[in-house]
Amino acid sequence: MKKKIALVTGGFSGEAAISYKSAVTIYNNLDKEIFDVYTIDINPEGWFYVDQDGNKTKVNKEDFSIQANGSEVNFDAVFIGMHGTPGEDGKLQGYFDMLQLPYTSCNAATSALTFNKRYTTAVAAVAGIAVAKSVHLFHHTGYNVHDILAQLRLPVFVKPNNGGSSIGMSKVTEAGKLEEALEKAFKEDDQVLVEEMIQGREFTIGVFKSEGEIIPLPITEVVSQKDFFDYEAKYHGASSEITPAVIDEGWKAKIEEAAAKIYQVFNCNGVVRIDFIYNEAQDTPYMLEINTVPGQSEASIIPQQVRAKGWSLKAFYTWLVLDALENK
Asked: What is the dotted CATH code of the domain comprising 134-196?
């Protein structure tokens, strides 16, 4: 009998638009000979099962069941294809844990931790992983621009501490521009991270676990036509992504080793994407952030890396679902 899989998309943040694109790729590539797939859209208006004709049916939040074709459907597992809150920050994971329903992402604790960029870098630093120097700001406590600049060297990146897709992020090269960048970031979140820029080339790598083995995907080098890899560069073609990256074996080994260590230290599950800056002078990869629900649209990096590995997305998504089912 086919396993019934809920493909969860949508969300409550600006990243919802990316979630819907990811959901299309995931749905089209989940093996329908093995799985019955039901798209669940969670948005500010409610939780809905959306069939292929666009008809909506409310989800029963008591047990995450739906009514379809005149009968009740209870799911065997959830494929989380939602970026931002509540699908990437641990909230849905905690809900599914309460229902004892397996899912394809990191657990609630890991998701909540890695969604907070400052706490992520703090844990990584304790584990001996290289990270940039930073200052963590809270809107309710206020801040002083001069104090920030006394602790960090320009240029710096200013970004919302929770969230992704580079929404609300700025690169600051002049002291007089810092206040404007902070205001922009605080419009997206009540916590902001100000981080020293690490000089070097930017790389990103997908990592996943299958049958207990941590497996790296081919590394991608990101070359932005903008000042940095912002929302426009990510989603509007203002960057080039080279997969697999053209780097020497020493760099490749160090990035893969760091990624595997990060996956272990943060107790990750499913596929995550880890971003690095490789500082050539120090011959060291610096971790930027961990994406526990990385983009899966046709233009996204993980699908690029899967194909570069010589695998099909259908096979890859099958592994992710089966791993979730086996480790429930």
From this structure: 3.30.1490.20
